[in-house]
Amino acid sequence: MPPSSFERVESPDASTIFEYHDLTPPTTADVYRARRVLSDHLPRTPLIKSEWLSETYGAEIYLKREDTLPTGSFKIRGITTLVAGLDPAFRQQGVITASVGNYGRALAQAARWFDTEAIVAVPEGTGKNRIEGIERLGGRVEIVGADYDDAADWAADLAAEEGYRYVHPGNERGVIAGTGTAGLEIAEDLPDVDLVIGPIGAGSIGAGYGLSVGAVTDAEVIGVQAAEVDAAARAWRSGELIPQEEANTFADGIAARVPYALPMAVMREHVDEMYTVSEAAIIETVGKLFREERILMEGACAPPFALLEDLSEEINGQTIVIPVTGRNLPGAKVEQVLVDR
């Protein structure tokens, strides 16, 4: 691969991209191609009706249990698709990203499957269990900087210097296509679905589900963010990729400070609406799901469930799917949400 491929290029958003980052929006056909790739590595995930939520809201509400996937998160779909399609030169050198948990764990697992090295930069203060989860799968963890942005800058610098493939947090066609394979499963298992509600951080769920279940059924796809970190929702409405200064939320898995160009281009065409929910609602919802369903989900999963209360009149009588996107809730947060439960 020519050396120019290892140099940064001008980015349409406030993030680092390289020449090899193709910002051409993926298509529904790409999602089907991703499913062929993933069939050798990942199982279909269950789609299970929640009797409690269905009775509460007078609707047929199903949970797409992405938390049952290897690494405990939906992110393994997109990362595996990306690593499977890498140029041989990158497979030989290795892959690198920044993460505070699930993205890094998924990269370590996919790198192991495809026999390449994975380096994951994490900021200081990252939980020991998250670091150990990455290392257990063979990933090399580097603790760098005070926050995610510092870790991402360091990862991009090393990618440029040593030729690693920088796995971008949002601008990855393979990640979007791979994430969308869950939407194809929803469409096949529940073709009469009316509404799919997904959490939005970097945007791979909104973009991937919009290209899959949103394209092959009559379902609407809507996204939900934490109100404290709503850069994507604002960009979806305005078309302007303006980052916010801070990204502090209990739902740290969707704490994307920067709206990314590629998933946003897809979401603005294929996502029907965007909402936000409060921090209090997110924390309360994680506790409720554990109490009523015995599902211990991450804060990043909670916004779609929290939104149900706001949409209670509109969703009456509808068939709805919500993905449970991850189960890797840090120990301190487990204590926080389960106190007095």
From TrEMBL:
<dbReference type="Pfam" id="PF00291">
    <property type="entry name" value="PALP"/>
</dbReference>
<dbReference type="InterPro" id="IPR001926">
    <property type="entry name" value="TrpB-like_PALP"/>
</dbReference>
<keyword id="KW-0663">Pyridoxal phosphate</keyword>
<dbReference type="InterPro" id="IPR000634">
    <property type="entry name" value="Ser/Thr_deHydtase_PyrdxlP-BS"/>
</dbReference>
<dbReference type="GO" id="GO:0006567">
    <property type="term" value="P:L-threonine catabolic process"/>
</dbReference>
<dbReference type="GO" id="GO:0003941">
    <property type="term" value="F:L-serine ammonia-lyase activity"/>
</dbReference>
<dbReference type="GO" id="GO:0009097">
    <property type="term" value="P:isoleucine biosynthetic process"/>
</dbReference>
<dbReference type="InterPro" id="IPR036052">
    <property type="entry name" value="TrpB-like_PALP_sf"/>
</dbReference>
<protein>
    <submittedName>
        <fullName>Threonine dehydratase</fullName>
    </submittedName>
</protein>
<keyword id="KW-0456">Lyase</keyword>
<feature type="domain" description="Tryptophan synthase beta chain-like PALP">
    <location>
        <begin position="39"/>
        <end position="326"/>
    </location>
</feature>
<dbReference type="InterPro" id="IPR050147">
    <property type="entry name" value="Ser/Thr_Dehydratase"/>
</dbReference>
<dbReference type="GO" id="GO:0030170">
    <property type="term" value="F:pyridoxal phosphate binding"/>
</dbReference>
<dbReference type="GO" id="GO:0004794">
    <property type="term" value="F:threonine deaminase activity"/>
</dbReference>
<dbReference type="GO" id="GO:0006565">
    <property type="term" value="P:L-serine catabolic process"/>
</dbReference>
